[in-house]
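Justification of computing resources. Each target in the renewal requires a structure prediction run like the one illustrated here; the chain below, 333 residues long, is used simply to show the kind of job we budget for.
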Amino acid sequence: MSTATALPSPAITLPDGGQFPSVGLGMWKMPKAELPSLVQEAIRIGYRHLDCACDYGNEPQVGEGIASALGAGLCRRDDLWVTSKLWNTYHEPKHVRAACERSLRDLKLDVLDLYLVHFPIALAYVPFDLRYPPEWFFDPKAPNPAMKPIDVPYADTWGAMEELQRAGLVKRIGVCNLNISLLRDLLAQCSIRPAVHQMELHPYLTQPRQLRYCAQEKIAVTAFSPLGAPSYLPLGMATPEENVLHDPVVTGIAAAHGKTAAQVALRWGVQRGCSVIPKTQSPARLAENLALFDFALSADEMAAIDRLDRHRRFNDPGHFAEKAFNTFFPIFD
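Resulting structure tokens:
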């Protein structure tokens, strides 16, 4: 996967002809109060890809920003790509449509460009009027709160996702956080193939076999946490020594190009054929993260970053679920 290219397109063409923007704005951990204006500003400076989820708890604020941007004539709805995700507590097929409709209502949209299954984790249903978003605990007020896994085959959830696409509520459906075996099993039995696989991917977790398999199956890849540790440092899920933006290989390449370390890490992801969804609350960094198409990394530079792989996964339920939610729940092993 270490081939340098000359300035790839700012969009990935999907098998259905859709143009999937190569750079998006991730909404995980983004503060609600600032989001309406931040989303409007992002759209004003050129973002056309917004990555949302029920679990982020801020879709109404994202929806306000989108509505304001459209109302101000900053773009047309058809120019935007908006992704949302089905949360773990809605995996039973009878709950899938209602979950999607709730996200649509919060985002003030008639249709999603992409709807993903957030994790291959099925948890007991929590009604909207009891708690929304429901997060991970089944009952946060219990003496010993924990997750409450239930037995729902992934294929059953996927069948309900297919019905969303047939009904016109979503243009495409996709997956997140699957290992290759589960993805292969899904492809063997689905009627509608996943358009996108969203996975953690950065220079310390390069995932070459996932990329190769998805390319083989014509499934686009979105790299979440494309800058690695920064999103996880405040959560105690990473250490400062694991910050790729301080890695001398990355900073050296950045200096050679007159770019920031973040731009080099993001450019590496885009140049591998991925869509990247960094997040930032800084207007200056919004523009910086979008400015990836006026330079290219050489084959040697790409290979040098590839060699940084530590197989370091920050977002792993097999680790954080037991520590934070009193439930051992590995999905990648």
